[in-house]
Structure prediction request, 106 residues.
Amino acid sequence: MIDKHCEFCGRPFVALRQTAKYCGDVCRVKAQKRRKAKKMVAQPKRKCAVCGKDFRPKTEASRLCSKACGMRETHAKMRAAKEAERHIQQLRHRALTRRTGEAVSP
Prediction:
């Protein structure tokens, strides 16, 4: 057991591991929330890639303002993929029709 001071509240505590930083779960969670809040303040506002609304991202990689915009983007990608597949099938059908010289059912 190791005598340490909590990095959040400064109180002394007995640690079971050398890597312990906090006296308990309460201080650990509060420290985590403080770190997260600092990250959020550090992020400049961005425009959502889907709706164009200004928002403050939670991470550096955030591109969308909400789950709803995430769903809209996903559905749009799915529609685009289906349309691309349909277009490829039409091109194949046209090529087969030209080769055989007769109408072929799709």
Summary: The longest helix spans residues 67-100. The mean pLDDT is 90. Residues 39 and 59 are 8 Å apart (CA to CA). The longest strand covers residues 2-5.
